[in-house]
Amino acid sequence: MTVLCLVDDDPASLEALTFARKLVAQSHEVQALTLGGEYAPEAWAQAVVEVAAEVVVAAGNDRGSEVMAHVAARLDAPLAANCVDARVDGDSLLLTRQRWGGSLLEEARLLGSPKLLTVAPHTVAANGVATNVTELTPRIDEGVRVRVTRREQPEAGTVRLDTARVVVGGGRGVGSAEGFALLEELAGLLGGAVGGSRVVTNLGWRPHADQVGQTGARIAPDLYIACGISGAIQHIVGCKAAKRILVINKDEHAPIVARADYAVVGDLHEIIPALVAELRKAKGAAESAAAAP
Amino acid sequence: MKTLVCVKRVPETGARITLTADEQEIDTTHLGFTISPHEECAVEEALRIGGETTVLTLGPRAAEEQLRNALAMGIGSAVLLETDGGDWSAEATAAAIVDAIRDGGYDLLLFGNESADAGNYQVAVRVAHALGLPVVTGIKGIEVRDGVVHARREAGGGWEIFELSLPAVLAVREGLNLPRYPSLKGRLRAKKTEIQIVRPEPRASRLEKLRLVVPQEEPRTVEFLPDAARAAEVLRELGLVTG
Predict the structure, then answer these.
(1) Is residue B200 assigned to a domain?
(2) How many domains does chain B contain in total?
């Protein structure tokens, strides 16, 4: 069984590679392929097709999903999207894959060849490093109609929601767009990013890019601080990969409390300022200790 | 400008998902139905771009409800690719859509990036490939100028911009726009609009669903903290307070 894994320089790729290695169980080596140069999904897919592997695995992120969809269309083969587990069963693969953003799982059998899979991000603990990597710059010929023609870089100094160590999320309980100033302050002290629930982005309190949830960002920070968020399934799907969750909410019976490690029950408009004051005090003490001779 | 929007009828799941006894479907006895937020934005974008608009879905007869909602928002006409219900694979869905629209003369085909339920991330790309059209996915900004679509996608905290010449296919994300609510006039018009019904042939997939499983979440034990001072201590213990 020849197994090819598309590898980019992001954590999701290493998760996909870990998944692929577990699938072949050391009996075969996974061939890792890093595609470089200008991103052009048609050209990248053609490069994958030309390898002619029996199994192709990629991360279920934007690029991985897009390139694999092109590969599947070219080969008229099924693509099992967002797998969380797979094992070999004779000529077929027995898969478990996410539906509803992971709030439901599907067990499925993938037959025939080639077998194409994407791996749901944040579901596999990545280990090891990429080895046996082939680097390739796909040829961009006249048949390639779609490619990145321009990029806009993020503003300098912004903490990215998808890679932040700490995310402070706000929901309807924050009350207004202005109310997010409190969350910004807390996030700033922790070097974190601010996110919001779908309610908040639909109300225009935050830009959609800040949404944590099934139709927004899926985050996996060390700590997610959920403020005034009740915890609809669509939101939980986006934050459940957080290592720890701290809830600040008036309602101790809010669904998100059942998903939390810590909860402070009360009004976020009182608790966050108090927390900010405590953190400033601690910072001040540390700084004056450092400044002491 | 002639635009087609493809949508999918899905149940409105509540706080807990319950399965049917055969573990093949979600038990929808007590659930309403909707389309995914991505698709609502696709419908809105078609209206924003203007011109002749059509909404299409593949699903059971009851999916007329989702078509009529799009008509009520202002979409001009509707096509139902009627099935007996149940899951259609991404390959079969794409093939049925291609058969139905091949001669439609559409300039722009809009899809949601992934359906809320199956999340296959591929129907738009398969349709584009079969029709020989350019396609890009994950789009959160569209501008059509002089026969060229300028499409934006979030990448690494910034944006990637693609330019595609029409006709083209785009799979879009929520955040592209804020969808409007249907007007009363729109609802009345939607009721009277005749829906074109086609019955496509199903086709087997090499990806077979065996059963659905509601995942067992690892139980988390919540520690209630009495106040902000204790919360600050916890943040310190977790090593998250720097300085």
Answers:
(1) yes
(2) 1
Q: Is residue A159 part of a domain?
A: no
Q: Which domain holds residue A20?
A: 3-136
**Burial class of residue A86, CB neighbours in 10 A (0-12, 13-18, 19+):** buried
Q: Last residue of a domain, which of A87, A119, A136?
A: A136
In the structure, what pLDDT confidence band is assigned to residue A293 with cuts at 50, 70 and 90?
low
Q: What is the extent of the structural domain holding B144?
A: 2-213
CB contact under 8 A, A99 and B15: no
Q: What is the pLDDT of residues A246-275, one digit of tens each?
A: 999 999 999 999 999 999 999 999 999 999
Inside any domain, residue A144: no
SS3 B50: coil
Q: What is the pTM of this model?
A: 0.94
Q: Is the pLDDT of residue B100 over 60?
A: yes
Best residue of B39, B121, B233 to probe chain A, by most A CBs closer than 10 Å: B121
**How far does the CA of residue A262 sit from the closest CA of chain B (Å)?**
5
Asked if A278 and B229 come within 8 Å (Cβ–Cβ), the reply is yes
Å from A15 to nearest chain B CA? 18
Q: Give the Cβ contact number of residue A273 at 10 Å.
A: 14
For residue A103, give the nearest of B17, B157, B160 by CB distance: B17
Q: Is B229 on the interface with A (CB under 8 A)?
A: yes
Rg (CA), chain A: 22
In this structure, which amino acid lies at residue A265? V
Report the number of distinct structural domains present in chain A. 2
Q: How far apart are alpha carbons A20 and A131 in whole angstroms?
A: 13
> Looking at this predicted complex, what is its ipTM?
0.95
Kindly state the average pLDDT of the residues B219-243. Answer: 90
